[in-house]
């Protein structure tokens, strides 16, 4: 287990550094607020999230996978198919569950209150992909642990999935410029920054699209795919219409956002409304 943690941390810091340098060398958009303040707040949330998981979930998903394997829990542990196919199916199913979970956090108003902290960032870069409220992390971890037990994902499958999820989340939240032809090809295989950036648009019909984190196929399959923002990537507004004050993106206010913030009209039950007109009501 210690080796798995070292591998995961190695990939995490390696991908983070790569995307951060890429953003400096070839940015997609000009940032609108202080990067130092944003990074302090966003990475502060990462530290709190990590501590929360460490304290509350000593049996993280990989330990659940070990238990499931030992006790024969879950679908994949009871199928007589090649190991490589179990790994492939496990990663694919877990990614689809994350996609569905993401939609759930947009659709249920109480869950949206937690998730809107992620969307309230006024800019979009590698740290945005790590910015989730600790309570959302707790709920997500519970769903993940239950999913691992139910499908019978192996420990290796869970480690691989976590590496892919963390790496792609930092990549597709990167403020990085990709040639359009490369992006067009890549988004057939993985969620690209231009594809996921649409999801962080202030416009509701764009916020409620492109929910995939790693693989782009679920959005196309379930009809939630939107290729480009209406205003273009340089012209689009990032964030939520009701949170335009940079002071709301300090660490303590971010943590309080679900409890004191206006959720606006973003949950999917208000699909397609104009955010500014709804907020003025």
Quaternary organisation? single chain
Mean pLDDT: 90
Shape: globular
Q: Sheet bearing the most strands, described?
A: none
Rounded radius of gyration (Å): 19 Å
In sequence order, what are the helices and strands, one letter per element?
HHHHHHHHHHHHH
Describe the structure.
The protein is mainly α and 281 residues long. The chain has one domain (2-279). The protein contains 13 helices and no strands. The protein has helices at residues 2-25, 35-56, 61-71, 83-107, 109-119, 134-151, 155-172, 180-186, 193-197, 204-207, 217-222, 251-260, 275-279. Helix 3 (61-71) runs parallel beside helix 6 (134-151). The N and C termini lie far apart (52 Å). The model is unreliable at 272-281 (pLDDT under 50).
Q: How would you concisely characterize the structure shown here?
A:
With 281 residues, this protein is mostly helical. It has helices spanning 2-25, 35-56, 61-71, 83-107, 109-119, 134-151, 155-172, 180-186, 193-197, 204-207, 217-222, 251-260, 275-279.
Keywords:
disordered C terminus, 13 helices, mainly alpha, globular
Topology readout:
Blueprint (H helix, E strand, L loop, with lengths): L1 H24 L9 H22 L4 H11 L11 H25 L1 H11 L14 H18 L3 H18 L7 H7 L6 H5 L6 H4 L9 H6 L28 H10 L14 H5 L2
């Amino acid at each position: 287990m210690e080796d798995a943690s070292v591998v995961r941390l190695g990939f995490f810091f390696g991908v983070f550094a790569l995307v951060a340098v890429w953003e400096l060398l070839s940015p997609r958009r000009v940032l609108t607020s202080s990067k130092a303040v944003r990074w302090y707040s966003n990475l502060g949330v990462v530290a709190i999230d990590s501590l929360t998981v460490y304290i509350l979930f000593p049996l993280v998903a990989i330990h659940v996978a070990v238990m499931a394997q030992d006790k024969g829990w879950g679908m994949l542990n009871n199928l007589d198919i090649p190991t490589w196919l179990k790994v492939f199916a496990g990663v694919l199913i877990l990614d689809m569950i994350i996609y569905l979970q993401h939609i759930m956090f947009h659709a249920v108003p109480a869950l949206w209150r937690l998730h809107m902290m992620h969307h309230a960032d006024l800019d979009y870069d590698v740290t945005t992909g790590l910015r989730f409220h600790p309570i959302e992390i707790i709920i997500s971890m519970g769903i993940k642990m239950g999913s691992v037990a139910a499908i019978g994902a192996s420990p290796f499958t869970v480690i691989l999935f976590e590496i892919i999820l963390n790496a792609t989340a930092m990549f597709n939240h990167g403020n990085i410029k990709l040639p359009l032809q490369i992006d067009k090809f890549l988004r057939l295989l993985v969620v690209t920054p231009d594809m996921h950036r649409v999801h962080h648009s202030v416009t509701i019909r764009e916020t409620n699209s492109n929910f995939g984190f790693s693989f782009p196929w679920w959005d196309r399959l379930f009809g939630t795919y939107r290729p480009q923002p209406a205003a273009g990537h340089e012209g689009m507004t990032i964030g939520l219409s009701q949170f335009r004050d940079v002071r709301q993106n300090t660490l303590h206010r971010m943590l309080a956002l679900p409890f004191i913030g206006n959720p606006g009209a973003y949950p999917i039950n208000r699909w397609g409304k104009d955010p500014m007109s709804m907020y003025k009501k």
